[in-house]
Automatic annotation (TrEMBL):
Protein name as it appears in the record: Thioesterase family protein
Organism: Planomonospora alba
Domain of life: Bacteria
Gene3D superfamilies, per database record: Hotdog Thioesterase
SUPFAM superfamilies: Thioesterase/thiol ester dehydrase-isomerase (SSF54637)
InterPro entries (alphabetical): HotDog_dom_sf
Length: 241
């Protein structure tokens, strides 16, 4: 979605793109607002702060002003995106076969706080992304093999940045979480270098980078099978009090 400066657009988040029950997946909504700021332009980093949970199936206002894009519900600021002059560091490449094997250790298989999550939930193939990060033996990484479903393409057959951001999102949390543990995404900064293609296979890799009080920090990356970096992100999660 591309908007001229100052243009306000009404948007509604379909229930398909949920994370926790009743609210939008953080990565997907961050990517949606990022795309409103930058259009389809790649290779510039965007920092997206989630100020409040984004409701589903509710008319919201998406506005681009100067170098900022915002999503609001009435007077409530939900999401804010800004361009940042930063190159995101990416965790190391994990080959697809190894990333796919790591899924067997995905903690959410035994207990998942948000089993309906569009990204990492136990949804039907083609409905959700089914990215299940598990520990990579001998490393500090978690990884999953992502097979991009045809059902995430837009009307032009392209994979929107919102989907790419979503794929980068949950893995940074699972780098911290054990079975049944959860937090809410507070900020996601991402840089998309190359397009993602439906039917393609990619490695999703993440690692925990620290903790400060209720804040959890992580970074993630999306790689093609030959190790080419597609996108990278860093995230801040907020645990529940």
């Amino acid at each position: 979605m591309t908007m001229a400066a100052g243009l306000q657009t009404a948007v509604t988040v379909p229930a398909r793109f949920r994370g926790p029950e009743g609210i939008a997946n953080g990565g997907w909504i961050a990517g949606t607002v990022s795309e409103a700021l930058n259009g389809a332009g790649h290779d510039s980093a965007v920092e997206v702060t989630l100020h409040a949970p984004t409701p589903l199936e509710t008319p919201l206002d998406l506005r681009q002003l100067a170098n900022t894009a915002t999503l609001t519900h009435g007077e409530t600021l939900l999401v804010e995106a800004i361009n940042v002059a930063e190159r995101i560091e990416a965790p190391a490449f994990v080959p697809f076969d190894e990333a796919a094997r790591a899924e067997s250790g995905f903690p959410g298989m035994s207990a998942h706080a948000f089993p309906e999550c569009f990204v990492c939930g136990l949804r039907a193939p083609g409905d959700g992304l089914r990215i299940f990060p598990g520990p990579v033996e001998g490393t500090d990484l978690v990884a999953a093999g992502w097979r991009v479903p045809m059902t995430v393409a837009d009307e032009d057959g392209a994979v929107p940045d919102a989907i790419v951001w979503a794929a980068l999102d949950c893995a940074t949390g699972w780098a911290h979480f054990g079975p049944g543990e959860s937090a809410l995404l507070g900020r996601l900064t991402a840089q998309v270098h190359r397009p993602v293609h439906t039917g393609g296979v990619y490695s999703v890799v993440a690692r925990a980078t620290g903790r400060e009080g209720r804040k959890l920090f992580g970074e993630s990356a999306l790689y093609e099978v030959d190790g080419t970096l597609v996108a990278a992100a860093k995230a801040t999660w907020i645990t529940r009090a």
